[in-house]
């Protein structure tokens, strides 16, 4: 019995989808999963969704895409996950479509917070036309470089993070 079959045996609402290449060796391309109960869980959470990514390093490389929300007790609640071999627009579309299909309809009003990734910017309005898409200022501040006079050179640059989390509407 595979790992996924064992998890589904314990949690019948467990959702997963594995996609591979069609070649002889069945190379992994992406894997989506989320734990249930899906529709009932999402109704209890705040309508603010944070979408992020991180790179997987080590023996198995790729990108982990996640969707996180805040529960009524102000705790972080991870909803869905996708491991993919690339972070293309197609991967973002697949990830957000699977999220929308498993948690709420496409007509539900909610807020999406993300970084300024072009893939996310292009896909969110197409997949969730009723969503409000904002950017996290922490991500933006990490991409802003200001001149540093402390180093004694006008050519030196340093990062200056913003002191508080600010949301910027698109």
UniProtKB/TrEMBL annotation:
Determine the domain of life of the protein's source. Eukaryota
Provide the MULE transposase domain boundaries. 48-143
Q: Which organism is it from?
A: Kingdonia uniflora
Know the name of this protein? MULE transposase domain-containing protein
Q: Which Pfam families match?
A: MULE
Q: Which InterPro entries does the UniProt entry name for this protein?
A: MULE_transposase_dom
């Amino acid at each position: 019995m595979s790992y996924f079959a064992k998890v589904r045996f314990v949690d019948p609402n467990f959702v997963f989808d594995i996609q591979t290449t069609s070649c002889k060796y069945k190379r992994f391309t992406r894997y989506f999963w989320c734990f249930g109960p899906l529709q009932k869980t999402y109704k209890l959470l705040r309508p603010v969704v944070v979408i992020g990514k991180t790179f997987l390093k080590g023996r198995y490389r790729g990108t982990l895409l996640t969707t996180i929300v805040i529960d009524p007790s102000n705790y972080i609640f991870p909803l869905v996950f996708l491991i993919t071999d690339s972070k293309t627009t197609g991967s973002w579309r697949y990830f957000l479509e699977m999220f929308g299909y498993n948690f709420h309809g496409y007509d539900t009003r909610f807020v999406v917070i993300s970084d300024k990734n072009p893939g996310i910017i292009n896909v969110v309005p197409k997949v969730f036309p009723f969503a409000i898409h904002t950017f996290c200022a922490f991500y933006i501040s990490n991409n802003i470089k200001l001149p540093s006079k402390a180093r004694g050179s006008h050519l030196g640059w340093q990062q200056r993070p913003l002191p508080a989390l600010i949301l910027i509407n698109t």
